[in-house]
TrEMBL record:
<keyword id="KW-0028">Amino-acid biosynthesis</keyword>
<dbReference type="InterPro" id="IPR028939">
    <property type="entry name" value="P5C_Rdtase_cat_N"/>
</dbReference>
<dbReference type="InterPro" id="IPR053790">
    <property type="entry name" value="P5CR-like_CS"/>
</dbReference>
<feature type="binding site">
    <location>
        <position position="54"/>
    </location>
    <ligand>
        <name>NADPH</name>
    </ligand>
</feature>
<feature type="binding site">
    <location>
        <begin position="7"/>
        <end position="12"/>
    </location>
    <ligand>
        <name>NADP(+)</name>
    </ligand>
</feature>
<comment type="similarity">
    <text>Belongs to the pyrroline-5-carboxylate reductase family.</text>
</comment>
<dbReference type="InterPro" id="IPR000304">
    <property type="entry name" value="Pyrroline-COOH_reductase"/>
</dbReference>
<protein>
    <recommendedName>
        <fullName>Pyrroline-5-carboxylate reductase</fullName>
        <ecNumber>1.5.1.2</ecNumber>
    </recommendedName>
</protein>
<dbReference type="Pfam" id="PF03807">
    <property type="entry name" value="F420_oxidored"/>
</dbReference>
<dbReference type="InterPro" id="IPR036291">
    <property type="entry name" value="NAD(P)-bd_dom_sf"/>
</dbReference>
<dbReference type="GO" id="GO:0055129">
    <property type="term" value="P:L-proline biosynthetic process"/>
</dbReference>
<comment type="pathway">
    <text>Amino-acid biosynthesis; L-proline biosynthesis; L-proline from L-glutamate 5-semialdehyde: step 1/1.</text>
</comment>
<dbReference type="GO" id="GO:0005737">
    <property type="term" value="C:cytoplasm"/>
</dbReference>
<keyword id="KW-0521">NADP</keyword>
<keyword id="KW-0963">Cytoplasm</keyword>
<keyword id="KW-0641">Proline biosynthesis</keyword>
<keyword id="KW-0560">Oxidoreductase</keyword>
Length: 265
């Protein structure tokens, strides 16, 4: 079994490590490197995974997952590059960072893959989009897919689509939580106890997501089935249209896509 190192054990690094362990990978096959010592210690205690330095991770692992912020990526790449050689696989989960950037800072012929994951991976309902670099084999891609499929779905996309993917599925959970928060606050405004509003909204979200996913029906059709002529839903949707919520989503996703492009550096 190949050895996997995760460099950067924040929100997403922990999500990936926890998912690999849940899927049956042994702690002995994993290692983590983390700049904040107290965070590293917390995760060592929680998962029993060895904590190493970035250089040790680069020297000892077959597959290196880079899960630091895009702004920290140049320093990490410069630090590990002298200790990496062809045959190892480098997988970046950072927004914006291209495989061209990864390859330009790593030794010649080292295989690199760019991934955009999301936090529902924490409950094995993640969506990860992966793109190959120029030295990457089919076997490398399949290895990355097997690592990521531990925590949800995996889709291959051409790298030119990754900034748009980041805007949709990478950042997407935050938009959904924002809508949930807004609906709960509205329920409280209408006089419902907060706990009642929360349970109503969360189950409505879970139920609607399953209906969408399991029925395969188009969202427009599902929305129309809820919308009785002259009824309550039509009244609410009219307000959403008047407040240009659809246009706001378009602008928001454009902003996220543009930010991902900027993060490329
Ligand atoms: N949080 C999310 O929903 C998603 C995050 N990502 C990507 O994952 C990456 C990490 O994001 P988060 O986990 O949210 O950030 P985070 O800030 O929670 O985690 C980053 C971790 O990297 C560590 N770190 C920084 N420099 C380091 C270095 N030189 N050596 C070792 N460790 C170092 C930090 O101490 C921190 O614990 C980002 O590039 C982000 O674009 C991608 C998709 C979703
Ligand atoms: O906000 C961010 O930059 C990261 C990438 C996608 C989700 N979180």
């Amino acid at each position: 079994m190949s050895v996997i190192a995760v460099i950067g054990a924040g929100v997403m690094g922990e999500t990936i490590v926890a998912g690999m362990l849940r899927s049956g990978r042994r702690p002995a096959d994993l290692m983590m490197s983390e700049r904040r010592p107290e965070r590293a210690e917390e995760l060592r205690e929680r998962y029993g995974v060895e904590i190493v330095t970035n250089v040790e991770a680069a020297k000892r692992a077959d597959t290196i997952l880079l899960v630091v912020k895009p702004q920290d990526m140049p320093d990490v790449l410069d630090e590990i590059a002298p200790h990496i050689a062809p045959g190892q696989l480098v997988i970046s989960l950072a927004a914006g960072i291209t495989t061209t950037t990864l390859e330009s800072r790593l030794p010649d012929k080292v295989a690199a893959i760019r991934v955009m994951p999301n936090t529902p991976a924490l409950v094995d309902e993640g969506m990860a989009a992966i793109s190959r670099g120029s030295h990457c084999s089919e076997e490398d891609l399949q290895h990355a897919e097997s690592l990521l499929s531990a925590t949800g779905k995996v889709m291959r996309v051409p790298e030119k689509q990754q900034d748009a993917v980041t805007a949709i599925s990478g950042s997407g959970p935050a938009y959904i939580f924002f809508v949930v928060e807004s609906m709960i606050e509205a329920g409280v405004h209408l006089g419902l106890p907060r706990s009642t509003a929360t349970e109503l909204v969360v189950q409505t979200l879970v139920g609607s997501a399953r209906l969408l996913s399991e029925s395969g029906d188009h969202p427009t059709e599902l929305r129309e089935r809820v919308t009785s002529p002259g009824g309550t839903t039509a009244a609410a949707l009219r307000e959403l249209e008047d407040h240009k919520v659809r246009a706001a989503f378009l602008s928001a996703l454009e902003a996220a896509r543009n930010r991902s492009q900027e993060l490329a550096g």
